[in-house]
Amino acid sequence: MLTPESGKDFASARQHALFEEWINFFTGRPNDLLSFEEIKQNLRLQDSAYKGLQEVELDKIVGSTGRYRDFTRSFLPKNRTTEERWRRVDNVALTEGFPPVELYKVGDVYFVRDGNHRVSVARNNKAKTIEAYVIEYKTAVPISKDDDIEDIRSKMDALLIAEEREEFFKDTQLDKLRPEQEINFTEPGRYRLVKDHIAFHKFLKETECHCEIPYEQAVMSWYDTVYVPTIETIRRSNILVDFPDRTEADLYAWLLLHREQFEKEIKALGYVPNEDIIEQLRRERATNSFALFMGLFRNSEDLRSLPLNVERAKFLDETNLDEVRPHHNIKFTESGCYYLTKRHIDIHKYLKEVEQSRAIPYEEAVASWYDNVYMPVIELIRSHNLPAKYPKNTESDLYLWVVSRREALESDRLRMSQILTEALIEELESESASGPVTRLINYFSQKKSKISEDLEKVTATVLS
User: Fold this and answer.
1) What is the CATH number of domain 4-147?
2) DSSP string covering 18-74, please?
3) pLDDT tens, position by position, 62-74
């Protein structure tokens, strides 16, 4: 039977929970219980031992196996779904007391295996400790009662990095071979990546000389001819200014990972220079309006993320535009634009073939698109002297803006092929240097999920 006293106790606990939620919201302190399963996975807990019945400090119980969403960090009830059971436990606590709870211990904190409501009632009744049967998991990560899940992950990463660093220098002896080295990573797994890179470098050198090279010699060769030149490139680029929490070694590892991605994309092993990959990273960090606008396309379309000069080279190779129209000056400032333009040409080819009821050679379609679609828009852009108003963007950028703006207007107004290019040029002319692109960003932010579906329709409209 539920008593009025237990009702008052629960109401008081809920009031304190609301107050605690507000305080922690404004102070930014964590107020959620930790999930034991998440902690177990992050810390890779395996070895455990039963420690028997103990008196445990209640404020060291910071999580639970299953009820971590029902209570605040101090085990106050978050909602009324737990009211009936909470009050029953409260009745028992006031009259008879309750049996020990069951806890897991990790580091210096505890997680409830069984007895969440008992812990909550005990804390609400101002108890300092509670009897518990304890199972302890061993961990080298120092966990305190004030840690949230991100703190624990950071500590786990720091431990893994320290272990990997020790193993790396033990195996490579690089700290002795090159005492001036400063290879420090902020993410786990990077030292192992570099060891693999050294092993591959050793293989290449042995293949080159048809001889076996001592491992220490390969380590020094890798450091002198691969690592140091890359670090010098990173320093010249000053890219670390944009990444104050990262190290030069972090950027080296990033280059390794992204070089593999880029070279697979263009099927050209060793073709992508370090400078191009660094420039790609810089563009990904860009905050100008056109970069943000193209970023929305990349989020919505499966656009290729290549160094810009590589993407341009592929575009020119695929379209043969240098030979078809040697005087062209198609240049974009953001990756993804060449890919979109290539799709415009492909759709133009399809439409011309439908119109003429015959297959059209690709170079003929490229010439037709350039003469009848691209250049008329460019001529309008030039006649309004828009390049002078947008000095950071190319004529090709402005062409792509017109294409996209047309789609935005016609999609909203359900008026296909009724938006004049001249009207769009006048709009671009009357706006501030950031106005139109900003408006496009807002538009695509609301409708970016629709871009993939409508892109062919957009292009067909522009070509009509």
Assistant:
1) 3.90.1530.10
2) HHHHHHHHHHT---BPEEHHHHHHHHT---EEEEEEEEEEGGGEEEESS-TTTBBTT
3) 889 877 888 888 8
